[in-house]
Amino acid sequence: MVPLYLTLLFGACSTSQQPSEGLPEVEGENPPPMGGIPQCAEYEENTDVYGFCLYKFAGGFPNVQEVDRLCPMAGEWEKDCRHAWVSGRMNKDSGYSTDMLLEVCQQNPDCTFELLDFRPDADVVKQINYCVAHVGPYTRDCIGHAMQRWWYTKPNAEEVARVAAVSTPFPDRVAFYIAASVACSNIGSCDGDARMTKICEKTVQHYKQSPNRCPAQEERPMHGNLKPEELRSKTGQSKPQKPVQKHGPANAAKPPTIKPPQKTP
Amino acid sequence: MLHLLLILACSSGGESSQAGSDCSSIKDIKKQNTCYHDQLIAMPASDISKIIEVAKLITDDMWRQAAVSKWIKEHNNDVNQQQGQQLCSLLDGRDRSYCLRQLSSPHLRR
């Protein structure tokens, strides 16, 4: 009889997307106490392929103890092994706390950033602190994303003051949206963290001069199901075409005849 | 001379899996896959079509995906997106999308 543990691992392999997606946890089952997983046994003689195999099955590992036991056997694929396991549990209803999953990521910024961006804390200040503590080279982007989401919540003056007081390594990311609130929504002020305040005041001037630069406060829907080739620029790859004039008098696609002014010595 | 003959005999009889050897002459499928795998990961980025060709010769899915994933990890800075996409299409699921991201996201570039 095949133990449930093995069935789940097999199922994890045969899914086409995230291996662990939708898998029930099997806490209480008895995983193989020692050694790796049988699915990868045939690759044991090659460290690299064996590690890759463990990573491919990582989504089906039943608990953190098994991740901590098996992923180190994956050698240079350990990071990916942990990341793959976390990826399948990023939904808030997975039963795993953000702190626990961050621990499993072991400071791999690809893993921590994906996790924090996928399930951000509702409190932007906490989210910023998570960004600063865990995502290393992606801290600026992480804070930027946190602030953008915060901006969509249409914060009131009290909330603006609370966030403006936060000191971060990237005050420009905070200042950008505090200034937007001050200049574009007339809510709150730039008072707060000294470095942030300085940038905010400059940015307010910028928004006041060019109100069309104010960031949108409505989240735009993501366009799903795009194929990579659809994301590629289509310009510059086709044959030369006649320009199409949409406005103004017809010029029959002739270039303008105005000569550039002659330079006088 | 005798030494040389002995070395040649040993290396051909042992179905070597060294990169650059003629993997197609290896009869044992597992050893042949190992050979193509090792050959692929040692290849430079200059000829993507050759890499794709070798990858397609690997009959075991795990060996093939391990080789391609490892190669992309090492060389994602050296290939253009279009070429890389052909290689990424040899992977499946999460690996394929992560492979494409490695080619297009500046923060994932080494």
**Number of β-strand runs of chain B:** 0
Helix-strand pattern of chain A? HHHHHHHHHHHH
> What's the total helix number of chain A?
12
Q: Percent helix among the residues of chain B? A: 55-70%
What is the total number of structural domains of chain B? 1
Beta content of chain B = under 5%
Compact description:
The complex is a heterodimer of chains A (265) and B (110). With 265 residues, chain A is mainly alpha-helical.
Q: How does this model look, in words?
A:
The complex is a heterodimer of chains A (265) and B (110). Helices cover 47% and strands 0% of the residues of chain A. By secondary structure, chain A is an all-alpha fold. In chain A, helix 8 (139-152) packs parallel to helix 10 and helix 10 (171-184) packs across helix 11. Residues 1-30 and 228-265 of chain A have low confidence and may be disordered. Chain B is mainly α. Chain B has one domain (2-108). Chain B contains 6 helices and no strands. Chain B has helices spanning 2-13, 29-41, 48-57, 61-75, 81-88, 93-104. The longest helix of chain B has 15 residues, at 61-75. Chain B is globular. The model of chain B is unreliable at 4-20 (pLDDT under 50).
Supply database-style keywords.
heterodimer; A: 265 residues; mainly alpha; 12 helices; disordered N terminus; B: mainly alpha
Give the SSE map.
The complex is a heterodimer of chains A (265) and B (110).
Chain A: H1 4-14, H2 47-57, H3 64-70, H4 78-87, H5 98-105, H6 109-118, H7 124-134, H8 139-152, H9 157-164, H10 171-184, H11 194-209, H12 228-231
Chain B: H1 2-13, H2 29-41, H3 48-57, H4 61-75, H5 81-88, H6 93-104
